[in-house]
Amino acid sequence: MYDYLIVGAGLAGSVLAERLASKANKKILLIDKRNHIGGNTFDYYNSDGILVHKYGPHIFHTNSKEIFDYLGNFTEWRPYEHHVLASVDGQLVPIPINQNTVNALYGLNLSQLQVQDFFNSKAEKKDQILTSEDVVVNAVGRELYEKFFKHYTVKQWGLDPSELDASVTARVPTRTNKDNRYFTDSYQAMPLHGYTNMFHRLLDHPNIHIMLNTDYKDLVDEIKFQTLIYSGPIDAYFDFCFGKLPYRSINFKSQTIDSENYQPTGTVNYPMSQAYTRITEFKHLTGQKHEKTSIVFEYPTAEGDPYYPIPRKENMEIYNRYKTLAASEPNTFFTGRLGTYKYYNMDQVIAQSLALFKKIMQAEHLHIVHDPIKSSNGTTQLS
């Protein structure tokens, strides 16, 4: 008899498994369809001995000290600030668009104040910001929108930005300063020995039993458990009774090059006519020293593993029907990017799981074991 059956060994399921096992002394069965733990953050050493991310680059960043310290219990950190360049007009220029981007593209030498004036002169102000196109043209105008966002978005999402929710392009804000970092969060780092190593430590608890290569529907009627936590696709759980929720997937094409470096930054975006959206070179992310280097090209597609929920009004209407159905499921919780059909960053998934853990504890009136844990920065913290 297990207290909890948790479907999905990515961040959402694994964090809940760790909390419930270590803090509430619950017996957990954690299952996953794939042959590994770690979900989409899974990394491994390829045949050339280079540490690569199987499902594309995952860079950890957060403004939450609580989340950073929580993961710090299971990994040492390597400080890393991600930089992205975009291949535009024959140049590699920083994205998000900033002072350096504008000056390089137009051969100017504008100050921070002058860059804001430049954006204002180009902007097409909108009364309402409803779509991803609105976000960009309202901020910087149509020319920069065409150069950096329009074609990239069409490739990435299979839709014109005018058909997508404003939240998509709002994730990449425009700047007037010279900050070339892709993220500006207070905490930016990579697990020193990789994500898979971190997950092994996260799940190293005698109360957690892991089964891989397992579809929960093949097992759910044979295993005795009290509560189900489901982080797979919510529409699949209900056998697609309201139709399939659309996702975007990615075809990854990896290549090892007999050279120490391939490109100047971790990722280069290709927002124009190329079939791929970006190229990532993993050694920038991991800090690994190796005489060769490994890169990956990303080709978005409508088919394949569900990576990105597509944020459109009509999709949310379908999801809300599933959400209503989910609320009536006894002793069942839905979580994660797939379980709640939301385009979450990694830290948001962890925050969601920590919040769900507290909700479960309160609902079941369970006593939480308050044993002090040392985080990686040496501070003692209580759950």
In short:
Keywords: FAD, Flavoprotein, Isomerase. This protein is an alpha/beta fold and 383 residues long. The protein is 33% helix and 22% strand.
In words, what does this structure look like?
This protein is α/β, with parallel strands linked by helices and 383 residues long. It has two domains: 205 residues, NAD(P)-binding Rossmann-like Domain (Rossmann fold); 87 residues, no CATH class. The protein is 33% helix and 22% strand. It has 14 helices and 19 strands. Strands 8-7-13-14-15-12-16 form a seven-stranded mixed sheet. Strands 10-2-1-11-17 form a five-stranded parallel sheet, with helices on one face. A hairpin with a 2-residue loop joins strand 7 and strand 8. Helix 1 packs parallel to helix 14 and helix 5 packs antiparallel against helix 6. The longest helix has 18 residues. It is an enzyme of class 5 (isomerase). One of its GO terms (molecular function) is UDP-galactopyranose mutase activity. Its EC number is 5.4.99.9.
